[in-house]
Amino acid sequence: MMITNSQKSIIRQHINELLLANPNNSLSFQDINQYLLTKGEKVNKTTIYRYLDQLIAENKVQKYSNENGRGSTYILMKSVEDCNTHLHMKCLKCNKIIHLDCNYNQELLDHLKNSNGFEVDCSQTIIYGLCENCSSKK
Q1: What gap in Å lies between CA 60 and CA 77, rounded to an integer?
Q2: Mean pLDDT of the chain, nearest integer
């Protein structure tokens, strides 16, 4: 069954709503698909992935590999410059993404470059651990 342009538009609106409602959480394909199902939209997975790929190409969404290397999660980017100039941290429990945009970020990047000759690609780097909220629930 072919999806009409108006159906694509509705699906894209729903995906955008979900991303905007979760600015600090990374979302899996399953999260997005489940959300679409709650909106009454049964969508082929290729349609979802194509739209996510489009958002990535437009620098609107950042894609991260899961900590186990299987699958990916997606998060709305604040701005291209913002997400490409600092490190990110991801909570292993709640999937929250924290932008490490403090003075120590640049200090760490400079240290790695000067001491190890290693230049970090911030857009592809994520530190895994527990956020303050989840670590206090241990």
Answers
A1: 5
A2: 87
